[in-house]
Amino acid sequence: MKFFRKMAKVEQNNWRKGAILGFYTYMLLLFINYVSSLIFESEPLTSGVIFWTGLLVAFGYEFILNFNSRIKAKN
Length: 75
What we know:
Layout: H1 9-40, H2 47-74
Helix pairs in contact: 1-2
């Protein structure tokens, strides 16, 4: 029994782009948090905020790319 359908190449590429952007978002937020803790001795972002922001960016960007590719395929 299959729970998930096989992803198309376009969807795989869109997920890869979303995951890369999510990773860079993690790195940027961690850098901001670390530098702020060095300079001001307090962390402005919690680990939960960093975690959920990275996930939302990755899945959100993938969703936008998939949505745009579906619109282009219909036209």
